[in-house]
Structure formats: C-alpha cells, structure tokens
Amino acid sequence: MKKLITICLVVAMALVFGIVSAANATVVVGGYSFDDNAFADYLISSSGSYTTSGGSLESCVTGANVYTYAFSQTPGAYLDLGFSDNYLVNGPGNDLALFELGIPDTFGVSLTIGGTTHTYQTFYTGYSGGDYNLNVALVNLDDFGFATGSLFSHVVIGMDIVSGSGTVPSLAVVGALNSIPEPATICLLGLGALSLIRRKK
C-alpha cells in the first residue's frame, strides 16, 4: 500500500512540475498554441452593459471560438473570468493571451492579489475572426511582481475605454499560454495511473 501511495505522489508531483504532461490536444488561435483546456471557461462576475455577437455574455468570451465576442462602453466595465480545469501559471515569457476583433485596442488587466492593474495594447496577429482582424495582447505575469510558479484561477479584464485609446476592445478569447491542471484533474490523472499500475500486476 505504501508503494502505491508513493507512486501516486510521484505521479502527481511530476504532473505539477511538468515532468509528465497530460495528454491534451493542442488548439491554435491566432498563431499561438494552447492546451485544449487552457481557455477561460466561465464568467465569475461582470460590471457594465455589454453588446455580444449573439448568445450570452459568458458564451461569447469563454472557450476558443474567435467568432464570438463582447464589448462594453460602460465606464469601469470589467469581466472576471475563471479557469475551472486548469490554473493560469506565471511561467517563462508571456503567460496570458487576450484576443479581440477589429482595430487594435487596449485592455486593462488586473489580478486580485494586490489589485494591481496594467494596460496592454493589442496587435494584429495576421489572422481573422470572420470579417474582422484578430488582434492579441500578451500578458507576462512578471509585470505584476508575482514569483515564478504563482497560480491563478481567474483574471479580471477591464473592458471599457482606456484613457487615450478612444476605442473599446471586443473580447473574443482568453487563453493561458502557461497553465497546469487544477488539483482535481491532477488527482484523477494520478488515480488513472494507479489503476493502470494495478492492472499490470
């Protein structure tokens, strides 16, 4: 029994530290590669009035669909978006990609710890989302002063006009460039590995 517990712990630690990777499919958005579970997948809260491309606000700003989007002209508007099956992690280089449609715009991004906000300008990816150019803003969590390996289950994105930009972003996709499975996923993978080990005996 002790041997099985040790093996489970080793598998879980390997998953957390990237020694073993989960078998996730790769999704490419605007020329950037993501694990298929690395996208914000639920809306925690929002402030402001929104116009969407059709459907609910949550359905338009979660997942990997660049053809759906939402925008707001309400002063102080924001979206608090969560990751349910993975964590956003402060890893090497850029950690978060915010995709929007139309002309390049500016996002205000904040993380709840310390309430720090930084602004990020989007740029054209060379791809389109339907009839619009697909732009991206890349966020490095080092900008917020967090240590390498810091984990986040959600991110707050400012959706109104940033002073001096004069335009509002049409948010389509929020993807974690660096992510790891959340604990329940890690445990399930560990249990799966244990069941395979037990079957071989």
Query: Which CATH-level-2 architecture?
Result: Sandwich
The tally of strands reads: 16
Query: Tell me about the biggest sheet?
Result: 5 strands, antiparallel
The strand line-up of the biggest sheet is 3-6-14-9-10
Shape: globular
Protein architecture, described:
The protein has 201 residues and is an alpha+beta fold. The protein has one domain: Jelly Rolls, CATH 2.60.120.260. 19% of the residues lie in helices and 38% in strands. It contains 3 helices and 16 strands. It has helices spanning 2-16, 57-61, 183-200, and strands spanning 26-29, 32-35, 42-47, 50-52, 70-72, 78-82, 86-89, 96-101, 106-110, 117-121, 123-129, 132-139, 151-152, 154-158, 171-176, 179-181. The strands form 5 sheets. It has a 5-stranded antiparallel beta sheet with strand order 3-6-14-9-10. Strands 11-12-8-15 form a 4-stranded antiparallel beta sheet, with no helix packed on it. Strand 11 (123-129) and strand 12 form a beta hairpin. Helix 1 (2-16) packs across helix 3. The protein is globular and about 35 Å long. The two termini are 13 Å apart.
Helix-strand layout with pairing:
Blueprint: H1 2-16, E1 26-29, E2 32-35, E3 42-47, E4 50-52, H2 57-61, E5 70-72, E6 78-82, E7 86-89, E8 96-101, E9 106-110, E10 117-121, E11 123-129, E12 132-139, E13 151-152, E14 154-158, E15 171-176, E16 179-181, H3 183-200
Antiparallel strand pairs: 1-2, 3-6, 4-5, 6-14, 7-13, 7-16, 8-12, 8-15, 9-10, 9-14, 11-12
Helix pairs in contact: 1-3
